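2024-03-11 09:14:02 INFO receiving multi-entity request
2024-03-11 09:14:02 INFO entity count = three
2024-03-11 09:14:03 INFO echoing inputs for audit
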Amino acid sequence: MASIEMRDIVKTYGDHPVLHGVDLSIEDGEFIVLVGPSGCGKSTLLRMIAGLESISSGTMSIDGREVNDLKPKDRDIAMVFQSYALYPHMTVADNMSYSLRLRRTPKEKIAAAVAAASAKLGLDPYLGRRPKALSGGQRQRVAMGRAIVRQPKAFLFDEPLSNLDARLREQMRAEIKRMHAEFGATSVYVTHDQIEAMTLASRIVAMNAGEVQQIGAPLELYDRPANLFVAGFIGSPGMNMLEGSIVSETGTSLVRLMNGTTISLGQRVDMPEGTSVTLGIRPEHVTIRPPAGGVAATVELVEPTGLGIILHLTVHGLPFKIFSSDRALLTPGASLTVGFPPERLHLFGPDGRRVHLETLSGDALSS
Amino acid sequence: MGILLTIAHRLAILAYVVFALFPLYWLLKVSVTPNDLLYSEGVRMWPSHATLAHYRYVIENSAFPIFFRNSLIVAGSTALAVTLISSLSGYALSRFVFRGKYAVVALMLITQMFPLVMLVAPIFKMLSPLGLTNSLTGLVIVYTAFNVPFATFLMQSFFDGIPRDLEDAAMIDGASRFTAFRQIILPLTLPGIAATLGFVFTAAWSELLFALMLISGNDSATFPVGLLTFVSKFSVDFGQMMAAGVMALVPACLFFLLIQRYLVQGLTAGAVKG
Amino acid sequence: MTLSATGRRPRKPFARRLADAAEPWLYTAPVLVLIIAVMLVPLVLGLSYAFRDIQLLNPFSGGFVGLDHFRELSQDTAFYRALRNTLWWTGASVFLQFFFGLILALLLDKPFAGRGLAQALVFLPWAVPTFLAGLNWAWMFNPVIGPLPHWMVSLGILSAPNNILADPQLAMWGPIIANVWWGIPFFAITLLAALQAIPRDLYEAAAIDGANPIQRFTSITLPFLAPTIAITVLLRTVWIANFADLIIVMTNGGPADRTQIVASYIFTQAFKRLDFGYASAIALVLLVLLLAYSMVIVVIRQRLIEKD
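2024-03-11 09:21:47 INFO inference complete, emitting structure
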């Protein structure tokens, strides 16, 4: 078990920068999820922790020891690959024990460690098989088993579930979470799937274009996204983003949208008249047929998900989405009024950063 | 229409098979034809009685067993040496990005382009003060160098087919890169290693010009040299010559069967890169 | 470890950087040493021989003779004949190998029962050692033990069952036929691999669009094969121009130098006359000619690509 410390980590391929100075402190026992679109540098960062990619500049330390120049084999970390990377010419048992055999661990200890891991993962019937003779889910378990027999300082996961079908993925997700709760091992998990990030992480690191956008607990990213990127990336269906400009009235500020509709922020904001801003609201936070006020909208499309419905609407030509667990019979073309409760609104300034306001979403809820 | 096309297709295949096999069949036929029937029965497809006397004579009374042994030593050592060396270099070309890689590839491509016959004289001049002419060691060194570039490209194509994740996983499991190469990557390349062994063995077994130039005298003659000398000296003992020919054919055919499955993959790699 | 507190460290320790940079070279070192020692050094040495008097049996040779060898070469009628023979030998061999190889590849491309076996059998000649292929065909052409002269008489190709290898007019056909027999599998294997890389749904799409088999061949198969054809023909041409084994085994350049190609002429000069200087001069001329040929082909190919 160990802490991992990254200071101003930079990675360049030739002249092409992929990571522009990442700072991240991972505490002992944390489950950190690196999340972001493909090409954001999350896998590169993970491979740098593993020692599979060199560090262009900055320092990386594990358990207080600088590891920049340490080979992967000397870092004492385990990794689960997207492809599982099981050794095809070895049996399941040999796959799991390879690292211990390399370290010349006594035979009895190896046998005990493999037996314990295999029992935990339900792999006992397959120990003598080759990976080729296993299903996708079983291979995934072997890859996990290979990582846990070693009791390493940290676990690294590189999109370990993306080759599984939806059902199996859900099952393994829960299993990983259970194992982390049990062992409490420091883990770094890379995924592009924000549901995995939300469900597993003790803290999420949202990344985009080689830069960290926000670090925080899952609900913190959900409730108080630091910028437009995080707001758009976390949550499904995604947050509605409405561009507009600040209009001041006595006592309260409004945002005037492109189509002329105004939405009240419920308080005065300290921004000059006409500042261009983006207003965000999650689909599940828009109220349908509010008792007072509200804006007229037209239903364009209805997507039932079983759990609820996703309504695609337009408000004076501006498209946005609503999620509702109410299966109200809404057909395309229907008209209704919708409300934007001020305490659920997110406001982003011209630079795309969140504007913190007392009454706004999350800020109000947390206080 | 469809049936006619199918028949034409099978007949065409049959014609190719006959064309490919007939000369080899004829070699076999003459080698088992007794001398007294050789001229009287002319172009008959099979002699009225067959004999292994030519084989017995060749094995007991000629230097062919020595030639055979020499060729086995030369071709076997060359195949082992080339496979060992080219698996290292093929791995490097497959896995490393390094300054100078392009130059290394270019150098190896160039060696595939220029006429090897140019090297006959200078190599003779270089090897003779070292005492490596008239020596099997000299032949092995020369053949190894000649075959290593192609074998490198061949091995590279096999390594390219093995996911990098495997050695990444091994290195994280605690292996050095070289240990991962030996314990994880090489065992998975066994088909490629077999193919390379086969290609190189066949090439070394068949080489004639450098063997003719570098070897004189029976003691270190390889099979091609021995057979050719035999032919020019005793050009009437057809039965014996062909029996010796069949013997030269056997190891090459065995290796061909070994590598047959990988031919398409291997030659494609060679054709595209070499 | 004090450095870690300062954060950014632009440079790794020298030893680690050296070890990282050296790793690929450790893996490639054996190959490089061998190629340089056994191929490049002799090549350079051979180039220098072309301007020196190197005769193995003459201890006083070794002096610098400038362009003497080339002057002699320009007067050497045997060399000019060898040059013409090389063109004929290479052109006929490459064309026939390619033509029959392509047909074989197309035949093997469609699945049928026993394809694996048929493929193994038709590719077998490629495994036959070249010296043996040469001897074997020489015997086939020998009227005493071979059937071919008798068959050719029956077919009316020959008037009497003579050995064509002894006939100055026909001798070159002997090595060419042996070469075609031996070389068809190479083209067939290469083209078959290229054929199998063509996505099958292209043919289905073309068939749905109403293309007949010939249109499908010219509009899909040929364009896909073109790069493979171009590179294999280029490489094989150079290779066959240098390929003297069959000729040395079957005719040794005879009768009356009618089958002598440049490569076998070089070998004869070096091996029989032990005149390494003259042999190297011829080799240098051959190298220049082949380089020129390759350049022309590459330039033509580039032009064609630019036109598209």
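2024-03-11 09:21:48 INFO post-check: The two ends of chain B are 43 Å apart (CA to CA).
2024-03-11 09:21:48 INFO post-check: Residues 268-274 of chain B have pLDDT under 50 and may be disordered.
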